[in-house]
Amino acid sequence: MIRSSTERSYNIMKELFTNLITINTKPEAIQNVLKNPQRLLEWIPEIQSVKAGENHFHIRRISSALNQLEVLSVTTTTDSITYHSTKGRLEYDLVFKLTGADDQTIVAQTLLLKSKTPLSLPAGLLAPIAKHAFKQNLNGLKNLVEVLAYQD
Length: 152
Known about the structure:
4 helices; globular; 38% strand; alpha+beta
C-alpha cells in the first residue's frame, strides 16, 4: 500500500526529550519488567488498570493524566524496549535503551511524538512538564527493579 505524503508526514516521529538513570542491576532484570506492561501498575502511580488484549494492552490512568486511556503495544530488540502508545490524546513512542556494565545499567528513556499532534499545547511547553513526569516514572522503575534484584 502506498501512503500519501500527508499520511507519511503524520507518522514521522520527533524526539521531545531523553531522561537518563543508572539502575543497580543487570539489563535483563530491567527488560523483564519493561516487557510486561502488567507491571506498569507497580512503578507508575497514575495507572489504575492494565488489561491485556491481543498484541496490545489497554491502559487506564487517573483523570488528571494527559492520556487517561491509551492502547499500548511493545517491541523489543537486544538492547531496547519501545512502548507504542495510540488511541490517547497524545500518541507517542517511549524508547528505553539499556546499556549494562557489571551490575549497573544505564537506561536512556526517550519520548518520541508524532510530528502532528492534536494538542493545542506547543511542544516547547509540553517538553519540560512531560520530561519531569516521565523522569518520576523512571525513578519508580529504578526503585522497583532494585528491590526485585535485592530479593533475588
